Amino acid sequence: MKLSNIAKITSGINGRRNPEGSIYYLSARDFISSHEIDTQTAPSLMPSSKMDRHFLEKGDVLVLSKGHHGFTAHTYQGEKQPAVASSIFMVLKNIESTVMPKYLVWFINLSTTQNELIKYGRGSVLPAINKTILGDLTIDVPDLKTQHIIVTLDQLKKQETRIIKQLDQLKTTKLELQLKSKTI
After folding, report:
1. Where do the DSSP E strands lie in the chain?
2. What is the pTM of this model?
3. Where along the chain do its domains lie?
4. Which residue among 21, 61, 64, 139 has its CA within the 20 to 30 Å range from the CA of 8?
5. How far apart are the C-alpha atoms of 142 and 150, rounded to whole Å?
6. Per-residue pLDDT tens for 114-127?
7. What angle do CA 48, 49, 50 make, to 5 degrees?
8. CATH level 3 topology of 3-141
9. Neighbouring C-beta atoms of residue 138, cutoff 10 Å
10. Could you tell me if residue 70 is left (phi over 0), alpha (psi between -120 and 50 degrees) or otherwise beta?
11. Chain segment 14-23, per-residue pLDDT in tens
12. What CA–CA distance (Å, rounded) separates 33 from 37?
């Protein structure tokens, strides 16, 4: 199924940051994982009537539309409100009820999907995709139970990777301490 049949695709907005702002202006650097915003992110946009239709809602999916490292997707969980996406993102809104936003993020972030988007991306200095390229992306949509299993397995795999990394760091620290005590 084409992505344009699953969700409404809109663009992020171009804004000017202001330390007095009361609206969160999300950029790529504000996401520390595909489902988590950095807790240090602060509001930085002044309110404007023009941005009313751009406010993010829980479950919206933000897809990077420019960049050298692919076009990764992120789920907005509603933890920072009110929020809008910066112009570096395209936003998937009103996602069909038969598709989990986290599944959509998982699918878009697959290396095969990323390679497809990169292949159709435009621009040599800064590769970019537009609404048409993203909207034409074919998404395999299994039933909700299967989507839930896939998302859960992906989260467990990421958790395992984090634990293995932490274990490796602890082993390195332990080894360093043991070797230091032998030389003193």
Report:
1. 8-11, 24-26, 31-33, 36-37, 61-64, 73-75, 83-85, 89-93
2. 0.86
3. 3-141, 142-184
4. 21
5. 10
6. 999 988 888 777 88
7. 90
8. Adenine-n6-DNA-methyltransferase TaqI; Chain A, domain 2 (3.90.220)
9. 12
10. left
11. 888 888 889 9
12. 7
